[in-house]
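Below is one protein, fold included:
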Amino acid sequence: MSPSRTSWRIVLVHTITFKQARQWVPVVLGIGALRGLTDGPWAVVALVAGITAVSLATAVLAWWRTTYADGGTSVVVTRGLLSRSVRTVPLDRVRGVEVEAPPLHRLFGLVRVRVDAAAGAVQGADEELVVDGLPRAEADRLRAHLLARRSAPTPEAPAEPVEQELFRFDDRWLLYAPLVGSYLAVPLAAVGALLRLADELPRRWRPDLGRPDLTDTAVVAGALVAVVVVLVVGSVVGSAVVNWRFRLTRRGGSLVAVRGLVTRRHTELEVDRIRGCTVSEGLGMRWVRAARATALVTGLGDAARRGQLLPLGPRDQAWSVTRLLVEDPGPLRAHPPAARRRRLVRSCAPGVVLVLAGAVLTATAGWWWVPAAGVVLAGLGVPLGLGRYADLGHVAGPRSFSLRSGWLVREQVVLQRRAVVGWQVQQSFFQRRQGVATVVAAVGAGAGGYQALDIGAADVAPFAEAASGPWAGALAR
């Protein structure tokens, strides 16, 4: 297929956003400073005109020298003026396709296509193949071509795959957002940016709020209420912006997720490349029985976002969609008592150390409150250690296995047997003394490795063999 260019309207988008010209903006500002353009409205007009001209010129050159071609076996993207880059990806290496429509792109009727290419040697953003500035119809055609099955069509096969809706995001689930740390970071970042902007404003433009009386209980209570309101409202708004109208459907052999209020994203994943799922629950989420579900897809970049099957919702919904993709291996097995002792020791150790140090300080300086604080801290360590132990578990089923760990964020992963490419056993000096070990399942998806903490040393080889096959029995030697 002959190379094609993207829509010329992407030039306007890149000009407005200074995509290619951002590195040249300091140069233009420096030239303006050398020329003495520091005061007056005409100086501002000249700088704006110069920066816009540079942005327009670089956007035109980037558009003119960027082409893409999708053939029967590969997709090729060529870009660059002085330094040319040609990226070729075989279609059988494509792991997923995301169609993204930021606000400015939507204004001009364009989208951005991201192709996860399972690059292997390349890292970071280079794992993606990006075609920016396609009309919606062309983007849909390219997405369908990249994810098309290579098996020969049969007469019985329908012309268009039937779409099955797995579930739709319920707006009431936005109320879970204040219990999720990542969503709470949104209002905190916004407040920090506003404070920094206010600090940069001239003094005459800053409102005079006076000096609040921090000894007044009403003032302190009002400030705390305001902070709580900002955090709650901000987290809900942040969750709505990202997950608005989230919808997960199955279309033939693909999973399709659509979401976003300001930027609409259309992510499509091949079911055959899914090797497992992760259900994660933060400490606050567990109080209301909420969870997230994420698919583990081989070679998928930014899997924490693109692999989301349920961004936020009830725990039973997360497990329902997980069981649709991976067979449930059964209830988890508890870890040996040595694992419980190790967690109790680690949780209570800071308090015990504080008690011992406090005994010395009480005798020398009369600081009796130090050992008292140590006793309280050690007492709080008991339920903490028991809770951390209760969150451990592992099980191997006929076609899948599951591992669970974590306390602040409890994560349970369910993996297919075929996902495992190797095992690693880790055993410290103290683990050897107590007869436990940590076994890590190496997989080609998600985080790359998932561990079962402090399982019985005698159970390592049987568990690995049951979870992946007889070849793992070599761990017993």
